């Protein structure tokens, strides 16, 4: 009266195979689940009892013990329901024991329906050669199938699982059509040409995309900052399948995939409201910490509108992930690392009233207001931003003029090319994926200037009293501008353009 | 219908349903079991609830947590005294003027 089958659990974005052992023996009727189950796992007893009865099986009399091995790993989530139910049916010989090694993940509804759970993709990725098949909810079948070569069987009810195991019903393994992915990844839904004017900001977006630079847009309300930011994910280099797998893995862990979703075909765009908490931004929550906005924006764009309105503590926590491209959430007894390689785009008004620098309207803010507003962003935080660009209010005639500007598609072709160059160039440089990470020795080698460029940069540094940090930033941006042009060396004109994107004099502590 | 008549009625009903009656009114200091029966390899502890009307709530409602605890204690004692190693179950037989029904696996030992 003993049975064992496989299941799995996610811890962060990593998965572990779990062996579900079930023993049904004589004695008073008890049903216990051991092996460090959290509350939701213990509650599965009630779901399993009802699901078995309502699927036409009998719930066995006597003493039932289910063990989830390894017993020292804390078990969270509702994905064990299906495995435990099947183990009970096997132990009581209500279904035949499968000859193959199958892994079961799914939640049971009281009527015996098999519901989708979060984290199926990481579990499928972790499945080894020793497993012959995966049985998951129909809702999760697509995401499981993209991550493994093992056959994936999508099921809708417990009854269906049993007919499948008894051989009474055939279920065809889920197949995923990969071609649809690259087609979908090509589609541009937010095109640059739909935004009026703002040529300098558009150029800044192109540079940000091409070099992986973080960007801050400063401009009055209604100038189009949000619209511009919304275009950035589709300017970034074409979304590859491997990148998508990483992103989908995070979304699967967070339970944000829609039923039936396979790979996410678009780079993420996350725009959290400025009231977001610390845990919402970097990740957290009780039990195993879940991913935050910075991880949900992995390989995509994190747009922070009204940047100075964000809690300063929340902004400061971004500094480390911006450097490391991942975040380690360490809690008592558990620590989880989530990837967080995102492009940060900030937007803010030039001053609290928004009118500073407007040729036609007057700013009503006092110097003190202005200083307090700007001071909400710390120097070390602004240091992580390479590009600063003004997004002024559109002059009336420009607003009504027909729009003549490049489409996102054209820009992305150049971006793809520039990124390709960098990819090859930095292959041997550790911790450097694009120009935005250039530093130290690599910066000196790859941004070597000729005399003309050098003189120009010296002049700019002297004239605007630039710091060493600003100097480095200009070099990085100039490198990207040169890459967009396909130039081997950084020339004077590249420096001249890069100087325009330095922080304006209003951030003296930073400029 | 009094308790004894209800239990006789329940026994007849259980026999018809294929149960084998092992003992009636099995008593310990901790509690009493109305009927102990066997259905195949399963030992069934039966609590009989007889009602003439549902005025005070259905008879199912009468097996509350306290009553369950007493039945479980008695069942434990029975298991120990007979060294029984078979799977066990608690059923409730409901005897009403309009007919008799059984609630199989009515409750479990909480863990």
Query: What string, H for helix and E for strand, traces the elements of chain B in order?
Result: HEEEHEE
Q: How large a portion of the residues of chain A is in β-strands, by DSSP E?
A: 15-25%
Task: Please state the structural category of chain B.
Answer: alpha+beta
CATH class wording of the largest domain in chain A: Alpha Beta
**Mean pLDDT metric of chain B:** 86
Q: In total, how many beta strands of chain A?
A: 18
- Radius of gyration from the alpha-carbon trace of chain A, in angstroms: 28 Å
Q: What is the structural class of chain A?
A: alpha/beta
Structure description:
The complex is a heterodimer of chains A (about 500) and B (about 110). Chain A is α/β, with parallel strands linked by helices and about 500 residues long. Chain A has three domains: about 1-165, Ribosomal Protein S5, domain 2 (2-Layer Sandwich), CATH 3.30.230; about 185-410, P-loop containing nucleotide triphosphate hydrolases (Rossmann fold); about 440-510, Helicase, Ruva Protein, domain 3 (Orthogonal Bundle). Helices cover about 40% and strands about 15% of the residues of chain A. In chain A, the strands form six sheets. Chain A has a five-stranded parallel sheet with strand order 11-14-17-10-18. The N and C termini of chain A lie far apart (about 75 Å). Chain B has about 110 residues and is an alpha+beta fold. Chain B is built from two helices and five strands; from the N terminus they run αβββαββ. Chain B has helices at about 5-15, 65-80; strands spanning about 20-25, 30-40, 40-50, 90-95, 100-105. In chain B, strands 1-2-3-4-5 form a five-stranded mixed sheet, sandwiched between helices. The interface of A and B includes residues 26, 30, 32, 62 and 63 of A.
């Amino acid at each position: 009266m003993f049975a064992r089958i496989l299941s799995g659990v996610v811890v962060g974005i990593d998965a572990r195979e779990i062996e579900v052992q079930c023993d049904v023996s004589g004695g008073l009727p008890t049903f216990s689940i051991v092996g460090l189950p959290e509350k939701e796992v213990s509650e599965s007893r009630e779901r399993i009892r009802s699901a078995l009865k309502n699927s036409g099986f009998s719930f066995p009399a006597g003493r039932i013990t289910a063990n989830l091995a390894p017993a020292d790993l804390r078990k969270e989530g509702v994905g064990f329901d299906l495995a435990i139910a099947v183990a009970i049916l096997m132990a009581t010989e209500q279904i035949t024991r499968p000859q193959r090694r199958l892994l079961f993940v799914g939640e049971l509804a009281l009527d015996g329906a098999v519901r989708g759970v979060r984290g199926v993709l990481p579990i499928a990725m972790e499945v080894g050669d020793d497993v012959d098949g995966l049985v998951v909810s129909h809702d999760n079948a697509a995401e499981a199938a993209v991550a493994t070569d093992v056959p994936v069987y999508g099921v809708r009810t417990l009854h269906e699982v049993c007919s499948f195991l008894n051989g009474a019903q055939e279920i065809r393994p889920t197949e995923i059509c990969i071609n649809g992915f690259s087609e979908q990844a090509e589609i541009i839904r937010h095109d640059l040409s739909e935004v009026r004017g703002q040529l300098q900001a558009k150029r800044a977006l192109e540079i940000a995309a091409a070099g992986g630079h973080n960007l801050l847009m400063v401009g009055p309300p209604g100038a189009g900052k949000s619209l511009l930011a919304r275009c950035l994910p589709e300017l970034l280099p074409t979304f590859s399948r491997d990148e998508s797998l990483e992103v989908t893995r995070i979304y699967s862990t967070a339970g944000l995939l829609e039923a039936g979703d396979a790979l996410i075909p678009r780079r993420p765009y996350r725009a959290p409201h400025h009231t977001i908490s610390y845990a919402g931004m970097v990740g957290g929550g009780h039990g195993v910490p879940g991913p935050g906005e910075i991880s949900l924006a992995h390989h995509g764009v994190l747009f922070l509108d009204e940047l100075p309105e964000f809690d300063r503590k929340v902004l400061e926590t971004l500094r480390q992930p911006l450097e490391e491209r991942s975040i380690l959430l360490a809690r008592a007894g558990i620590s989880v690392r989530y990837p967080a390689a995102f492009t940060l785009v900030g937007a803010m008004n030039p001053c609290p009233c928004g009118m500073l620098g407007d040729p036609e309207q007057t700013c009503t803010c006092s110097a003190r207001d202005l200083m307090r507003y700007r001071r909400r962003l710390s120097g070390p935080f602004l240091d992580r931003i390479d590009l600063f660009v003004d997004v002024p209010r559109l002059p009336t005639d420009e607003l009504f003029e027909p729009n003549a500007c490049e489409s996102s598609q054209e820009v992305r072709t150049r971006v793809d090319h520039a990124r390709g160059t960098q990819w090859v160039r930095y292959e041997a440089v550790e911790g450097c994926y694009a120009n935005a990470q250039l530093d130290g020795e690599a910066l000196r080698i790859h941004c070597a200037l000729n005399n003309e460029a050098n003189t120009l940069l010296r002049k700019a540094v002297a004239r605007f009293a630039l710091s060493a940090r600003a100097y480095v930033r200009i070099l990085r941006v100039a490198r990207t501008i040169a890459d967009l042009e396909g130039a081997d060396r950084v020339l004077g004109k590249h420096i001249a353009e890069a100087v325009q994107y330095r922080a304006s004099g209003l951030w003296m502590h930073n400029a | 219908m009094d308790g004894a008549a209800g239990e006789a009625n329940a026994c007849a009903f259980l026999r018809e349903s294929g149960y084998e009656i092992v003992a009636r009114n099995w008593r310990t200091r901790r509690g009493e079991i109305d009927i102990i029966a066997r259905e195949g390899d399963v030992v069934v502890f039966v609590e009989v609830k007889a009602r003439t009307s549902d005025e005070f709530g259905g008879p199912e409602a009468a097996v509350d947590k306290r009553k369950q605890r007493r039945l479980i204690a008695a069942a434990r004692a029975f298991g120990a005294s007979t060294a029984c190693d078979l799977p066990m179950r608690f059923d409730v037989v409901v005897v009403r003027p309009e007919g008799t029904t059984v609630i199989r696996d009515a409750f479990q030992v909480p863990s």
